[in-house]
Amino acid sequence: MGRRRWLLVLALTFALLPQPTPRPAARATARPIVVVAANQSSNWSGYMQGRLEKGISFHAIAADWIVPKVKQRNAGEAETSLSWIGIGGGCLDAGCTIGDDTLIQAGIGHEVNDAGDPDYYAWWEIIPLPLQRTDPPLPVRAGDRVHVAIVESATTPELWTITIANLTLGQTFTHTLMYPSSFATAEWVIERPV
Question: Is the pLDDT higher at 147 or at 93?
């Protein structure tokens, strides 16, 4: 049998075979997000996940983002905004009538002075103490990609390591400290200029 005849027989064989029945398109399903308490803030936006929704405690959080460029909104006025992640500080009950007094957080500060000059810096904070700029200072500029992580030790309870890395510049700040946390919430926030 010639090559053409084989190809014809092969083509007819495939043409006569039963064709697969088309299946209906797969449907995407998702369960609704449980909202225990929706809070509003006049100076920040972001996402907070709590023990009330998930039934778990939070012992680590990490995020990457691009440092936003800031500019003065009102001439002659200094303004500060912050982007950060943290553990604690959220609501401890469904009605959000009981707040969490513990909060360990770290991120990037972006501010302008009254002349409109921008300043970018890495920082960390444990409530009730004030915000601490990294020492030594970690260089940060608008447009840099940063990675921030807050992780509790797996072997020593309440021993935390804060890591802030400028991935664009290849530089990292790390700080380890003891801090008692409620472990009740994890959040990623950007605060608007104030």
Answer: 147
pLDDT of residue 166: 99
Residue 163 lies inside a defined structural domain of this protein = yes
In this structure, is residue 23 part of a structural domain? no
Residue 109, pLDDT score: 98
Contact between 181 and 168 under an 8 Å Cβ cutoff? The reply is no
Residue pLDDT, tens place only, 136-194: 999 999 999 999 999 999 999 999 999 999 999 999 999 999 999 999 999 999 988 76
- Whether 34 is covered by a domain: the verdict is no
Q: Label each residue of the chain as H, E or C.
A: CCHHHHHHHHHHHHHHCCCCCCCCCCCCCCCCCCCCCCCCCCCEEEEEEEHHHHCCCCCEEEEEEECCCCCCCCCCCCEEEEEEEEEECCECCCCCCCECCCEEEEEEEEEECCCCCEEEEEEEEECCCCCEECCCCCCCCCCCEEEEEEEECCCCCCEEEEEEEECCCCEEEEEEEECCCCCCEEEEEEECCC
Range of the domain at 179: 41-191
